[in-house]
Amino acid sequence: MSMSTGGNSGGPMSEINVTPLVDVMLVLLIIFMITAPLMTHRIKIDLPKADPHVKEEVQVEPMDVAVKEDGSLYSGDAPVTEAELKSQFAVAANKSPQPEIQLRADRTTQYKTVRKVLGFAKDAGMVHVAFLTTGNGKE
Question: Which of 23, 54, 74, 86 has its CA 20 to 30 A from that of 6?
Fold first, then answer.
């Protein structure tokens, strides 16, 4: 609402300036004219149908990897070299679903050795890693 600064009466004007209101309404009209056809367009997708009576659970046996204090590596209970472990990780990474790596390391094993094994797994594309420990740490 505009105010009169001079003139005979000195009171407020009773006329409203509608130009800004019309500008905003025209912009909104243009926006709605552009977006309205996009909202009515539907994409057809063939969704899979689930049968609630069939439960398909795939149990994948995890990979057990152990690292000893001296840096020797074991897959399961068998000693392996770094190259063999890398190839086992590469084979496991291509499985669907991917098995989990359960990594066990001695308490005194250097972290760089454990990090090297984790690097092998990451380079192969493995994504599930679990660290196994003993009870509460008291022997």
Answer: 23
Q: Residue 10 has what pLDDT?
A: 64
- State which residues form the domain around 74: 63-131
pTM, two decimals, is 0.56
- The Cα 67–Cα 116 span in angstroms is 11
Non-local (6+) Cβ contacts of 2 within 8 A are: 13, 15, 17
With respect to residue 67, please indicate whether it lies within any of the assigned structural domains.
yes
Residue 125, pLDDT score: 92
Angle at CA of residue 64, ends 60 and 67, nearest 5°? 160
Return the CATH number at 109. Answer: 3.30.420.270
Interhelix angle 82-93/111-124, rounded to 10 degrees, is 40
